[in-house]
Amino acid sequence: MRTLSDGTAIPVIDASVHIFFASNKDMRGFLREPFKSRGIPDAEMDWYGAPGGEYAKGTRGPDRGYPGSDPDVVGGQLFETRGVDVAILHPMTRGILPDRHLTTAVLAAHNEMMVSRWLDSGTYASRYRGTIRVNPEDIPGALREIRTWADHPGVVQIGVPLQSRDLYGKPQFWPLWEAAAEAGLPVAAHIESGESIGFPPTPSGHTRTYEQYLGFMSLNYVYHLMNMIAEGVFERLPSLRFVWADGGADLLTPFTWRMDTFGRPHLEQTPWSPRMPSDYLPGHVFFVQGSLDGPGDTEFAAEWLGFTGKEDMVMFGSSYPHWHCGDVDGLPSTITARQREKLCWRNASRLYGIDIAAELVTE
């Protein structure tokens, strides 16, 4: 339970907490041959370095372990200091490597580490929920990971990189989305910490600065989402839920207006997706709202959040331990009390099936 600056108390589900191995040596301890002795890019191989450092101060683990790598340090800062009740963990990796088998092995190591180290043991295990990472370029390997972990009570989500070499509505990905829907697990697309062999962050190529990269990268959700709607993914899979985990909900409304402009006139081109594009958003599409998302503390923030039903799609996420990790006190002061509840916990509780104790909830 978090007490806000205005004195009100509210439950908090943090929908975006990034976890890492403590070191490359630590990661290799979870790998098996022939991958354990392979060359693997370091976790710090970002194309764009944040000015002043990528991570917030005080987030390193013991013995200079990588930020976000120690369950007790993370739990103490989230649950004891920040007033978070439940945290959704998202293991961060190196994107799509050239060897799809190596990529799958690295992701499997992250999944095993998260479950054994965070979900099944430790002081805060009951307050963590996990995202299992899968490789969309290795469908058999991805399905194997889903079968391995889908029934674990702490696993609530499947994670894929926002950077990809094909749009996620294309048929080669359908078996993966079908498996996610069958397992009852949402799919979260998140920017990776290393670009690897994904396409450039913008349709015009690589940006020059970190600020441009961070500003444009989240917009890749637009291309994926438009393609998924046009290809009829949500029509075919009514129970599929997709989370755009790096923000961008603040831009959903104008892009939806544009999609709907051609929704009906071009229906003959997409008979397998017969409804207006905006009709496929409710219940299918969710966003993590971070500290970089607008419109900020403005008088029209509540009205903008209400447009296109965004208030039912957004979930607070701190992006801990990154430098821009946010806090619920940073949400616009002008949004309604009901919108604040949806952002802080109700939407995430509904999506992930997390039961917030009745004594924490003020109706």
Topology:
Blueprint lengths: L1 E2 L5 E2 L2 E7 L4 H5 L42 H11 L4 E6 L8 H20 L8 E6 L5 H11 L5 E7 L12 H10 L3 E4 L19 H8 L2 H11 L2 H4 L5 E3 L7 H10 L23 E5 L11 H6 L7 E3 L20 H16 L11
Parallel strand pairs: 3-4, 4-5, 5-6, 6-7, 7-8, 8-9, 9-10
Antiparallel strand pairs: 1-2
Describe this structure in words.
With about 375 residues, this protein is α/β, with parallel strands linked by helices. It is about 30% helix and about 10% strand. Helix 3 packs parallel to helix 4 (about 140-150) and helix 4 (about 140-150) runs parallel beside helix 5 (about 175-185). The chain is globular, with a radius of gyration of 20 Å. The model has no long low-confidence stretch (mean pLDDT about 90).
Short key terms for the protein model shown above:
363 residues; alpha/beta; 8-stranded parallel beta sheet; two-stranded antiparallel ribbon; 11 helices; 31% helix
Gyration radius over CA:
20 Å
What is the distance, rounded to the nearest whole angstrom, between the alpha carbons of the first and last residues?
14 Å
- Please give the count of helices: 11
Label the overall shape: globular
Residue share in helix: 25-40%
Strand content: 5-15%
**Poorly predicted spans:** none
Mean pLDDT: 89
Strand order of the largest sheet: 3-4-5-6-7-8-9-10
